[in-house]
Amino acid sequence: MPATPSNVPEPSRTDPALIRNFCIIAHIDHGKSTLADRMLQLTGIVEDRQMRAQYLDRMDIERERGITIKSQAVRMPWAPTGAKDSPHILNMIDTPGHVDFTYEVSRSLAACEGCLLLVDAAQGIEAQTLANLYLAMEHDLTIIPVLNKIDLPAAQPEKFAAELAHLIGCEVDDVLKVSAKTGEGVEELLDEVVKQVPQPVGEADAPPRAMIFDSVYDAYRGVVTYIKVVDGQLGKRERIRMMSTGATHELLEIGTNSPEMTVADGLGVGEVGYLITGVKDVRQSKVGDTVTHLNKGAEQALPGYKDPKPMVFSGLYPLDGSDYPELRDALDKLQLNDAALTYEPENSVALGFGFRVGFLGLLHLEVIRARLEREFGLDLIATAPNVVYRVEMEDGTEHIVTNPSEFPSGKIDKVHEPVVRATLIAPSEFVGAIMELCQSRRGALQGMDYLSEDRVELRYTLPLAEIVFDFFDALKSRTRGYASLDYEPTGEQSADLVKVDILLQGDQVDAFSAIVHKEKAYSYGSRMANKLRELIPRQQFEVPIQAAIGARVIARETVRAIRKDVLAKCYGGDISRKRKLLEKQKEGKKRMKVVGRVEVPQEAFIAALSTDSGPAEGSKAKK
Length: 623
Hints:
The protein folds into five domains: about 15-195, 3-Layer(aba) Sandwich (Rossmann fold), CATH 3.40.50.300; about 210-295, Elongation Factor Tu (Ef-tu), domain 3 (Beta Barrel), CATH 2.40.30.10; about 310-385, Alpha-Beta Plaits (2-Layer Sandwich), CATH 3.30.70; about 390-495, Alpha-Beta Plaits, CATH 3.30.70; about 500-615, Elongation factor 4, C-terminal domain (Alpha-Beta Plaits, 2-Layer Sandwich), CATH 3.30.70.2570. Helix content is about 25%, strand content about 35%. The protein is built from 15 helices and 33 strands. The chain has an eight-stranded antiparallel β-sheet with strand order 11-10-16-7-8-15-12-13. Strands 2-3-1-4-5-6 form a six-stranded mixed β-sheet, sandwiched between helices. Strands 21, 22, 23, 24, 25 and 26 form a six-stranded antiparallel β-sheet that branches. The longest helix has 16 residues, at about 575-590. Its main location: membrane.
């Protein structure tokens, strides 16, 4: 993106007293991006003719779904009311609201001194509101409570202001009321940011230390690294060193985002901006690393971020095996853009070479797959998502299983599965329906609190494997869309789990294997056999489809034989008619993956490797 000079007057870059770093956190769909839009307009850095909704959401998938996936930092000048001669610099970060992107939020909080906790005045406090609030408290940030959407007919600002004040421990009058859509109250909010958020603290004369909190890959300029300067000062054309990797570079460009890239001479204490070194190797810019000078640099690195642990694993395979190197390069570049993404190579008898990819949740999986297909032009098959199991054998050995094909055979002593602590918030009339759903998913109630007369918070421990598919869909349908869900890992528990194999013509298809609870093994096996019977086209021989636990078959379906002659209707005429039919048949054959002697079409893999609702449906972004 070309640099554009900013025409906005700014104070001295070395004066941290005029800098305020803050972010906006909230549950999904509570108006973070709309509030960011109004701030961009009010501070004058985006002209009305250039303005569009969700201005900071740059990806197509973000704009289509109306959700934020990537945090975006922007620098805005603001002169508080009564102090027009001393404009402040506000560095604002708009964060995602979905539970799958909590890692983005935690990184953003580490680059700030304060945050706006935004709550929809029509919906009130939701599960992710609480999760983000606790994150902000862990980082010891100044929290400014804000009620948004007060212009809605269904808004109940007084009721939810009392709820929010009770939660944070402040007075009801301290809760600010704004409408991001109309702009009402936003000026007062910016004044409060200047008043309440503390200035950044750092040593201006010390060797420079800057924290990398994000990075992106630009095809023309290489890696663009986003930093917050904690100590000292960084300037253009200086030699810098990455403290964890030891890589050294020359600073080709340094600047700020206002909201487009704006070149600067340097960045001082407390400032947030970007730097470009022209490096194309994505592994040399690690999120959480510390940047310092090559000569006379800092000796002690800044504390980085906790590495996120993937909770859901899925295999990603290119439809065309020759695209494997392109998929590897694409994952490399996406990992730079998304530090929570982990992957390792694997191969499958049915699907060939691919990668076992770790995700933070189903929406994360869906977004990564959509980005790989759109941004890199890849056609992919994703295997059914599953979690990590720890299997103890009777001989004392232990196996970590991320893929059902790795499940050991032999005498198993115990199988341990990951467990999460789920927080569910809903109107009190739906308590019975939620309890029934959680009990059917092997959940255990840990506690229940009434946030107000008609809103209740339930805390459950649930096996992660039971909620990664269609739990959220089932929750929404039973509560008419009013419930919200947040979860975090809490450890593991032993359970009676078995591996169900699917056999076609007696040959095991590893892509269709699954690890399920013993009580649900028969229903999974019969459902998968039924589904494959409908999806696999009839062959010229009978195809038995069997579901088995070890050597015991628990379900069976059969695809009846057929013999199809595409030229039967061509009793005469031009040869080109026959050639056209043969070519059409040939195109159909290309779309088939051959498993043993049975031809399984690509659609069968895609449809069978999802639940009835499918991962794409089961993770709609209304969390």
